[in-house]
């Protein structure tokens, strides 16, 4: 009897111990699952906005300044078989651009099969550049700039059609020659209607090759009557209005009085955001209060990709600023029928030029060009420590000077 009692006690203990183990394992699994669920809701993934920031009534817009395909950039992108590939220009910015719900670039040049490839002063890039821009995540390119007639009127039309074929919208010119009757460019994103208008101060004298009828039909210039009418119309038809004017003094870090006056007028006419270009250096940002809301101006976004830099422009004032730009990062919110800017950031950027160790057929050293969003490359950034000491010092200086100078605190 005693042996049987001991056997029963041991069996009950073993059963109890098994149940306790199962209870412990189930409890631990429940805790781990809870942590995972909470983390998914509270901690955004790397390079991904939180769900609350990407709701159906919110839009994240990214925009930047000039993509200038100088001849050294063309040489660096040429492949052994004679084709071109510009995708490496966007290697380190593509993860940023892909986060945007709506991404805008300023393409300063033309794409024409009827004209030789060239950089300054008559820019003409191969068609593949439009595909590379699309693949980097862009939705829209601004073509209102002083180089849009570098390949003549046929080049303007070809540029628009090439981007359209690549899946990228264009603004700032009218390839059908119908400015007087064309609808405004308005794109609906997450239920928010975004109007984008773009204007150029001039066309480097190439407009002399056009008739007055062609000029009026194809180009978007600084005719104040037309600009005002279009901006006022956009305010009525869209939830948010972005205007991209191209003017100012090249390589000057402060806006002119004419810039300041015109950009303020654009806000008065109905613009919510003014993103300036042309000086090839960054100029400051300004926040304006209107009707109880904050409106945003950045007088120049600078260069986003070019061969302009200290090494090639050491006799130009502010040459170190030509290799810098900003990636504007703006969140728009629509609540109860009211649309407003919720946040705005200006991420400093810098173009790195890296020798390929080879030479082109015409005897020039070949370089790779890559644009960096600098917070990725300074202390705490995901790529920090990958640059040589001299380049790191240049990046650190650019980042700090840009942050202090633009001084955009929303």
UniProtKB/TrEMBL annotation:
<dbReference type="Pfam" id="PF09587">
    <property type="entry name" value="PGA_cap"/>
</dbReference>
<feature type="domain" description="Capsule synthesis protein CapA">
    <location>
        <begin position="60"/>
        <end position="308"/>
    </location>
</feature>
<dbReference type="InterPro" id="IPR029052">
    <property type="entry name" value="Metallo-depent_PP-like"/>
</dbReference>
<feature type="transmembrane region" description="Helical">
    <location>
        <begin position="21"/>
        <end position="43"/>
    </location>
</feature>
<comment type="similarity">
    <text>Belongs to the CapA family.</text>
</comment>
<dbReference type="InterPro" id="IPR019079">
    <property type="entry name" value="Capsule_synth_CapA"/>
</dbReference>
<keyword id="KW-0812">Transmembrane</keyword>
<keyword id="KW-1133">Transmembrane helix</keyword>
<protein>
    <submittedName>
        <fullName>Enzyme of poly-gamma-glutamate biosynthesis (Capsule formation), putative</fullName>
    </submittedName>
</protein>
<keyword id="KW-0472">Membrane</keyword>
<dbReference type="InterPro" id="IPR052169">
    <property type="entry name" value="CW_Biosynth-Accessory"/>
</dbReference>
């Amino acid at each position: 009897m005693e042996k049987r009692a001991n056997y029963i006690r041991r069996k009950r203990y073993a059963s109890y111990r098994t149940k306790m183990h199962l209870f412990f394992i189930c409890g631990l699994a429940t805790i781990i699952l809870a942590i995972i669920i909470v983390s998914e809701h509270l901690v955004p993934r790397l390079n991904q906005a939180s769900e609350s920031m990407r709701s159906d009534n919110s839009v994240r817009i990214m925009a930047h300044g000039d993509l200038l395909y100088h001849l050294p950039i063309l040489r660096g992108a040429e492949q052994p078989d004679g084709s071109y590939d510009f995708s490496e220009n966007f290697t380190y910015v593509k993860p940023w651009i892909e986060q945007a719900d709506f991404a805008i670039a300023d393409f300063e040049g033309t794409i024409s099969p009827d004209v030789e490839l060239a950089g300054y002063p008559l820019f003409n890039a191969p068609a593949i550049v439009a595909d590379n821009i699309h693949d980097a995540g862009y939705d829209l390119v601004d073509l209102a700039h002083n180089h849009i007639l570098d390949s003549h009127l046929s080049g303007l039309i070809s540029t628009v059609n090439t981007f359209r074929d690549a899946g990228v919208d264009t603004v700032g010119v009218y390839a059908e020659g119908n400015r007087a009757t064309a609808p405004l460019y308005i794109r609906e994103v997450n239920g928010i209607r975004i109007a984008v208008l773009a204007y150029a101060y001039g066309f480097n004298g190439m407009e002399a090759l056009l008739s007055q009828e062609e000029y009026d039909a194809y180009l978007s210039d600084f005719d104040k009557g037309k600009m005002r009418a279009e901006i006022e119309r956009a305010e009525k038809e869209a939830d948010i209005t972005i205007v991209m004017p191209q003017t100012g003094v090249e390589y000057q870090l402060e806006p002119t009085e004419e810039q300041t006056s015109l950009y303020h007028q654009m806000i008065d006419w109905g613009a919510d955001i003014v993103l300036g270009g042309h000086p090839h250096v960054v100029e400051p940002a300004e926040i304006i209060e209107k009707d109880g809301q904050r409106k945003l101006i950045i007088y120049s976004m600078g260069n986003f990709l070019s061969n302009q830099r200290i090494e090639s422009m050491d006799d130009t004032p502010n040459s170190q600023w030509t290799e810098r730009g900003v990636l504007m990062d703006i969140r728009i919110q629509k609540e109860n029928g009211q649309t407003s800017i919720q946040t705005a950031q200006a991420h400093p950027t810098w173009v790195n030029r890296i020798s390929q160790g080879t030479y082109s057929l015409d005897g020039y050293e070949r370089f790779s060009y890559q644009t960096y969003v600098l917070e990725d490359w300074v202390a705490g950034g995901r790529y920090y420590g990958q640059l040589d000491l001299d380049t790191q010092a240049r990046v650190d200086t650019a980042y700090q000077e840009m942050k202090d100078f633009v001084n955009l605190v929303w």
